[in-house]
Amino acid sequence: MNEPEAPTHGPAMTACESCGRHPRWETLVDGDEERWFAACRCGRMQAFLPDAPELQPEDPLGAFLAGPGRALAPASPPWIRLFLRSLEEPNPTRWTYCPGPCPGCQAAATFGFRACPRPFVLAMCTLCFRAASRRPRT
Ligand SMILES: [Zn+2]
Ligand SMILES: [Zn+2]
Fold it and tell me: How many beta carbons lie within 10 A of that of residue 114, not counting itself?
């Protein structure tokens, strides 16, 4: 997001209709489309879409982030985000296959990693995402 100083084609810098303060506008450029958003300290949100300057979207934040009439993708489950994050550089987690059935779904689809310095393997089923700690195989 930029911090525009004097927008020439953005929203009118008018006072908030609810409280009279002047919320700060943020802008983003998404492809050829530019969108603006302001969240007032009173909680009122506004979006401004230069292609439809009269439109006041029912969901200003959604219209700003995704575009008018487009749905935001649902949030990914926390375990998925943690797993994907664990693969990133500079210190990706070295997941290894953990043999044996998952206590949640009985499938043999569990991966884990050593939880050094603890003597366990932290394991996660890739089908039901049940997490558990296991004793490492000796
Ligand atoms: Zn306000
Ligand atoms: Zn499972």
Answer: 14
Give the number of the ligand closest to the Cα of residue 19: 1
The verdict on 68 and 6 lying in the same domain is: yes
CA angle 38, 42, 47 (to 5 degrees): 20
User: Average pLDDT for consecutive 10-residue bins of the chain (138 residues)?
Assistant: 56 88 94 93 94 90 89 81 88 89 93 84 88 73
6 and 44 inside one domain = yes
Domain of 64 in residue numbering reads as 1-72
Q: Which amino acid is at 58?
A: E
Domain count, the chain: 2
* Dist. CA 13 → ligand 1 center (Å): 13
Residue 72 alpha carbon to ligand 2 centre in Å: 28
pLDDT in the model for residue 6:
44
Burial of 112 (0-12, 13-18, 19+ CB in 10 A): buried
In this prediction the pTM is 0.52
